[in-house]
Specification:
Elements lengths: L3 H13 L4 E7 L15 E7 L3 H4 L11 E5 L15 E7 L4 E8 L12 E6 L22 H23 L3 H27 L13 H4 L2 H8 L7 H26 L5 H15 L10
Parallel strand pairs: 2-5
Antiparallel strand pairs: 1-2, 1-6, 3-4, 4-5
């Protein structure tokens, strides 16, 4: 496996030798001073180019970066491909274990490039790049919820939970799992972000997709979170659904208290009672109540 220095040298050398590339920046965990370092980290790189059409006309140009295990071209994956996008991306997983996510972005659109607090300039041939602050996580820290966002989250969580119960009672495990692991969990994840942010004065992040939650949650809440993940067993999924409600309640109430919001305790009580009722409904029931 090529070392980090070898990869960075290759990325910069390739850009330096190509007149179409005028500057190079890197984002992501490789420049995050707080991110754990390991060999799985991607190289998130942007080449600022005079034009991208000549690159697209020659698909073989990326061979310079090494032997590919698999390539994805996200901007070509719609049918038809979207029009009007400024950039173009190459997601490259190499046979030696390294990965580069490389974006081409026109120099003429530099002012439109999204701000990213985790940005490091690797090359600037013409002095066109702004003076970036040292890479930091400020752009990735949780932000306090508004009253509406909090209400919408709690409402959606309790609204969607009965769909899971319906699927479980009907023996439709795939439907039930989808409703729980997509719609209900999405709201639980939002509340977890606010809860972690609240506890750290919004100076700490649970990480992308909650990857640092084990480090930032109280052990008891972490163990409860683990119980929200079930296999394909019906009883296990019922237990996971109820654990989701328990965890959601235990983090949503202190968030509400912190910001002066109202937790919908009535919705919680009524829906939780309903879930338990459906769980105990006989298989030959003709009416819900």
């Amino acid at each position: 496996m090529r070392s980090e220095q070898e990869m960075l040298d290759l990325i910069i050398k390739t850009a330096r030798s190509d007149d179409r590339v005028r500057a190079v920046i890197m984002n992501g965990s490789r420049v995050n001073p707080n991110a754990p370092k390991d060999f799985f980290q991607d190289y998130d790189v942007v080449y600022l180019v005079t034009e991208k059409e000549s690159f697209l006309a020659d698909p073989t140009w990326i061979k310079v970066f090494g032997e590919l295990m698999i390539l994805q071209l996200p901007d070509d994956m719609s049918d038809p491909p979207p029009e009007g996008r400024d950039g173009y991306g190459y997601l490259m997983q190499f046979a030696d274990g390294n990965r580069i996510d490389l974006g081409l972005y026109p120099v003429s659109k530099l002012d439109h490039l999204e701000d990213d607090s985790l940005t490091l300039a690797l090359l600037d041939k013409d002095g066109i790049l702004p003076k970036y602050a040292p890479p930091n996580e400020s752009g990735y820290l949780p932000k306090p919820p508004t009253s509406k966002k909090y209400f919408d989250c709690t409402n959606e969580f309790w609204w969607c939970s009965p769909y899971v119960a319906k699927g479980l009672w009907r023996d439709e495990i795939v439907y039930a799992k989808h409703m729980m692991d997509v719609y209900v969990r999405e709201q639980l994840d939002k509340m977890l972000v606010w809860y972690v942010g609240m506890r750290s004065n919004f100076l700490q992040s649970p990480g992308k997709m909650g990857k640092y939650l084990e480090k930032v949650l109280e052990p008891e809440l972490w163990q409860l979170l683990l119980k929200t993940y079930a296999d394909g067993d019906y009883e296990h999924t019922w237990e996971a659904l109820l654990a989701m409600g328990d965890l959601f309640r235990r983090i949503a109430i202190p968030v509400a208290e912190q910001f002066g919001f109202t937790y919908p305790a009535g919705d919680d009580e009524r829906v939780t009672t309903h879930l338990r009722h459906v769980r105990n409904l006989p298989r030959d029931a003709k009416e819900m109540y």
